[in-house]
Design goal:
Blueprint: H1 17-31, E1 38-39, H2 51-64, H3 80-91, E2 102-105, H4 108-114, E3 124-128, H5 133-140, E4 145-149, E5 168-172, H6 184-197, E6 200-204, E7 229-234, H7 236-239, E8 247-250, E9 256-257, E10 260-261, H8 262-273, H9 279-289, H10 291-317, E11 322-324, E12 330-334, H11 341-352, E13 354-355, E14 357-358, E15 369-373, H12 378-391
Helix pairs in contact: 2-9, 3-9, 4-5, 9-10, 10-12
This protein binds pyridoxal-5'-phosphate.
Pyridoxal-5'-phosphate (PLP) binds near residues 108, 109, 131, 176 and 242.
C-alpha cells in the first residue's frame, strides 16, 4: 500500500508491563498448579455499582423501551441533567463550575488522550513515573515530551522546573502509580508557574474520591487555577464505572490561549468526533453524583481504603518506605534490600505467591519501587499482607 502511516506511532515505546506480568504469573502457575496466587496488581475496581446507580439505570432502560420516552443520540457534551449534577457535586465542596463548563464524556482516558487535538506543537511536561496515556498520546502526534523526575526526595511530588517555559503540563493527584497527593501549597506552586509562564495544566483527578485528608480534590480549589487549568475526572474509581464509562472534562470559560477560548475548541472537537455517552449510563452517573450516590460511593471507597490501611500498617511495622495508601488506593513501596522492581516481583511471586506491579513499568524513575493496589477482596488482601509481612 502506498499511503503513509503516522510514523509517530513507531516512536511509542511498546509497553509489555501487564502482558509480561500475566506471562510470569501463568508460567509460575503452570509450574506450581496448586499455588494460591493473590493479585494485588490490578488497577480495576472489584465491587459492583451501588443501588441508587443500578436503580436509575434500570428505570432508564425501561424508558428506552417505550416510544414516548425513547432517546436517540445524546448531546455531545452530555445531557443537561448530568452537567448540572457534576456542577452540584463540585458546589458541595465549594468549587463553582457552571454546567456549560462541564463536558461529559466516556471516561478520563479518552479525554486525556483526545485533548491533544486542541493544542498545537507545544512542549509537554510529564512527571516520571506516570500513567502512560499522557506520554503516549503526545508521542502519537509528534510532540516533544519532557519528563520531570518524581523521587523519594520530593516525596514523588515534583515541584515546577526552574526553567520558565510555556508547557502543557500533566498533573495527577492522587497519583497513579505513586499514590502521592499534592497539598494546597504544592498545587499552588504549579498554578503560579502555569499562570506566570502561560502554561496550561491538565489536572487528572480520577482518584479524588479517595482523599479524606486536607488536600485539594479539585485544582479549582486553588486560587487562579481557572486561568490556567483543565480538569479531567471520572466515575470509574469513585463509583465503580470502569466498565460502565462516564467522566467529564472541565474547562473554565475564562481559559484562553492565543486569544481563543479552550472550551470552544474542545466543544468543537467533541461535536465533530464524539456522539455522546449512552442515556442509560448518564442516568446512572446522575445518581452516582447525587447526595445519596455520594453516601453509597463512600462505602465502596471505605472498603478499598480499609484494604489500603491494612497493607500500609504492615509496611509501617516493617519500616518499609512508601507513599500512598492514605488518600489513594495505591501503595508505592521501595523494594527491600535494594532490589530492582522486577527482581522484587519475582521474589514476591516465588516466595509469597503475591502479584504486584513493578514500578519500572511506569517509567525509569519507578525502578526500585513497587505498586500494590487496594482494589482487591478484603480476606485476600489480609492474607497477601500477612505473606508480604513474613517475607520483609
Ligand atoms: N487517569 C488515571 C491516573 C488512571 O489511573 C486511570 C485509570 O486507571 C484513568 C485516568 C482512566 O480512567 P477512566 O476509566 O475514566 O478512563
Amino acid at each position: 500500500m502506498k499511503i503513509k502511516i503516522n510514523e509517530n506511532f513507531l516512536r511509542i515505546k511498546e509497553s509489555y508491563l501487564f502482558s509480561d506480568i500475566a506471562k510470569k504469573v501463568n508460567d509460575y502457575k503452570s509450574a506450581h498448579p496448586d499455588a494460591d496466587v493473590i493479585r494485588l496488581g490490578i488497577g480495576d475496581v472489584t465491587l459492583p455499582l451501588t443501588k441508587c446507580v443500578t436503580d436509575a439505570m434500570r428505570r432508564a432502560v425501561e424508558e428506552m423501551a417505550v416510544k414516548e420516552t425513547f432517546r436517540g443520540y445524546a448531546p455531545e457534551y452530555g445531557y443537561d441533567f448530568v452537567r448540572q449534577a457534576v456542577s452540584d457535586y463540585y458546589a458541595r465542596r465549594g468549587v463553582t463550575m457552571t454546567a456549560d463548563e462541564i463536558y461529559v464524556g466516556d471516561g478520563a482516558k479518552s479525554d486525556l488522550g483526545n485533548l491533544t487535538d486542541i493544542f498545537g506543537d507545544n512542549p509537554i511536561l510529564v512527571p516520571d513515573p506516570v500513567y502512560p496515556v499522557y506520554v503516549d498520546s503526545n508521542v502519537m502526534c509528534g510532540r516533544e515530551v519532557t519528563l520531570i523526575e518524581s523521587n523519594e526526595e520530593n516525596g514523588f511530588l515534583p515541584s515546577p522546573p526552574t526553567e520558565r517555559r510555556a508547557y502543557v503540563i500533566y498533573i495527577c493527584s492522587p497519583n497513579n502509580p505513586t499514590g502521592a497527593v499534592y497539598d494546597k501549597a504544592g498545587l499552588s506552586a504549579w498554578v503560579d508557574y502555569a499562570n506566570e509562564t502561560g502554561s496550561v495544566i491538565l489536572f487528572d483527578s480520577a482518584y479524588e474520591g479517595y482523599i479524606s485528608g486536607d488536600y485539594p480534590r479539585s485544582i479549582y480549589e486553588i486560587e487562579d487555577a481557572r486561568t490556567c487549568a483543565i480538569e479531567i475526572n471520572s466515575l470509574s474509581k469513585r463509583a465503580g464505572f470502569t466498565g460502565t464509562r462516564c467522566g467529564w472534562t472541565m474547562i473554565p470559560n475564562e481559559l484562553e490561549a492565543g486569544g481563543v477560548k479552550l472550551g470552544k475548541l474542545w466543544a468543537r472537537r467533541q461535536a465533530t468526533k464524539f456522539n455522546g455517552v449512552p442515556y442509560v449510563v448518564q442516568r446512572g452517573a446522575e445518581a452516582a453524583l447525587s447526595e445519596q450516590g455520594e453516601i453509597e460511593c463512600r462505602e465502596l471507597i471505605a472498603y478499598y481504603m480499609k484494604n489500603a490501611a491494612i497493607m500500609a500498617e504492615a509496611l509501617e511495622a516493617k519500616g518499609v518506605w512508601f507513599t500512598g495508601g492514605k488518600n489513594s488506593p495505591y501503595i508505592w513501596m521501595r523494594c527491600p534490600n535494594g532490589m530492582g522492581s522486577w527482581e522484587f516481583f519475582d521474589y514476591l511471586l516465588e516466595r509469597a505467591q503475591v502479584v504486584g506491579t513493578p514500578g519500572a513499568g511506569f517509567g525509569s524513575a519507578g525502578e526500585g519501587y513497587f505498586r500494590l493496589t487496594a482494589f482487591g477482596d478484603r480476606d485476600r488482601t489480609i492474607e497477601a499482607t500477612k505473606r508480604i509481612g513474613a517475607l520483609l
